[in-house]
Design brief:
The structure is a single chain. The protein is mainly α and 372 residues long. The chain is built from 17 helices and two strands. Strands 1-2 form a two-stranded antiparallel ribbon. β1 and β2 form a beta hairpin. α3 packs across α5 and α13 crosses α14. The longest helix has 24 residues. About 2% of the residues have low confidence. GO terms for molecular function: protein dimerization activity.
Length: 372
């Protein structure tokens, strides 16, 4: 495809059937694709995607195991650190690619096609601008003149450092919390029953949910989890076969304004996930006394983006409410519309006559206008 793209851009560049603007854009794009720096950058990202690709797909998997997810994150960070300063590996991959593509270009030239395309094999030397030294100043900072060293420092190392730093910031600092979440998964209940909980389990989770119930302690939460896990094989028999979730379809009207249709869809219960545990606690009123603290833990777990995306949908609603035709909505109205959109089930169950009757009591004007 690389050769096809270059040949297509070259045809646009030399053809008189296209506008000068299109020909100039094709020439600029072709030259950038042929640059050695572009090829190097592409292979840097290919190496990164090869490492984090399986992790990214697993993070989007329904019912993923948080403990295994954390292990995959740690392995991905370790592999990224292994290639963090391996610029030679990138150059070797780029050289192999350039040699292969150059051979294919030579085959194209032998087919009576007049083309003048050369893929760069080295970085161009960029003249460094020297900073003027003031009187009495001792300047020890020498600019990097070697193009390969400069690219390695300013591009390769920067991309890898930012990628690793971002992953560590998002995942590594919450490793203990994810381990506690894994204890709440029914997939690990058998291990909990056989090996019991470690003494330091659920400490981080207890600290997080203590703000909702000050009576929660680590020991009481552990005891409720041990009891619940031992009874799960019997309790899960009562899990409903399916449960309803909100599903959204994005559409555009005749004016190009994006809208969203909401409808209920049924998800089949797996009887082996945190959602099923929460459904059992709710269905049989186990949340009131028997497992009150454990219910708070499951609520906290199920409101996090790492377990489901339903809690994030309320933020995406803002895009549909505050579109280009409603960009001047003030904060109070926007908040009211968001609540109405998020709580559609409650809104649709409200009796319109009751709303009108309540509005009538606000003023004589409303009473006169709304009476019929």
């Amino acid at each position: 495809m690389y050769i096809d793209v270059i040949l297509a851009l070259n045809c646009i560049q030399i053809s008189n059937e296209f506008t000068p603007e299109a020909r100039l854009k094709a020439k600029t794009l072709k030259n950038s694709i042929l640059e050695y720096s572009t090829i190097l950058t592409a292979f840097i990202y290919i190496r990164i995607f090869n490492i984090v690709g399986p992790l990214s797909k697993y993070l989007q998997t329904k019912g993923m195991d948080l403990l295994k997810c954390q292990e995959m994150v740690s392995a991905a960070i370790k592999n990224l650190k292994y290639i963090q300063r391996d610029m030679d590996g990138v150059k070797l991959m780029a050289k192999t690619f350039i040699d292969t593509m150059s051979e294919k270009l030579e085959l194209v030239e032998t087919e009576d096609i007049d083309i003048d395309i050369v893929i760069e094999t080295e970085l161009p030397v960029i003249r460094s601008r020297k900073r003027k030294i003031l009187s009495g100043e001792k300047n020890n900072d020498e600019p990097i003149t070697d193009p390969e060293i400069r690219y390695t420092v300013e591009v390769h190392n920067l991309i890898l450092d930012n990628t690793i730093g971002s992953m560590e910031k998002k995942f590594s600092k919450n490793q203990i919390l994810y381990t506690d979440f894994a204890c709440l998964s029914p997939a690990n209940f058998d291990d909990i029953e056989k090996k019991n909980l470690p003494s330091n389990a659920l400490i981080e989770l207890t600290n997080k949910i203590k703000q909702f119930d000050e009576t929660i302690t680590k020991d009481s939460l552990q005891n409720e989890l041990l009891s619940f896990s031992s009874n799960w094989n019997e309790l899960k028999k009562s899990v409903p076969e399916s449960y309803e979730v909100d599903t959204y379809d994005e559409i555009q009207d005749e004016e190009g304004i994006e809208n969203k249709n909401t409808y209920k869809s049924h998800c089949k219960s797996c009887m082996n996930c945190s959602i099923c545990c929460y459904l059992v606690l709710q269905k049989y009123n186990l949340y009131s006394n028997a497992y009150s603290q454990l219910t708070v833990a499951y609520k906290y777990l199920l409101t996090l983006p790492c377990t489901q995306v339903a809690c994030e949908r309320s933020f995406s609603i803002l895009k549909y409410l505050k579109n280009r035709l409603c960009s001047t909505l003030n904060e109070s109205k926007l908040e009211a519309f968001m609540i109405m959109s998020i709580e559609k089930d409650t809104l649709f169950n409200i009796n319109n006559d009751e709303v009108i009757d309540r509005l009538k009591t606000k003023s004589n004007l409303l009473l006169r206008e709304l009476s019929y």
